[in-house]
Predict the 3D structure of the following.
Amino acid sequence: MSKTIITVVGKDKVGIIAKVCNFLADNQVNILDISQTIIDGYFNMMMLADSSKAEKEFSVLADEIAKVGEEIGVQIRMQKEEIFDCMHRI
């Protein structure tokens, strides 16, 4: 399994989750866990996903999902779990 952390942040609007989930499904990335909240009009979502069955290289997926974010007006980051853990270690 190749675990991936996906974060989505921005102003709330209709369709954010749908766009992100459709992109992941189209690229054979399986969502393992998802948490989202809206605070004072700002959308925040974190996903744990398995990208081991994706046909595209990880860097390509990360760039493409970031572009999806730009199209819908939010920031989307896709990172390998190991890198995410290292960045957030206290």
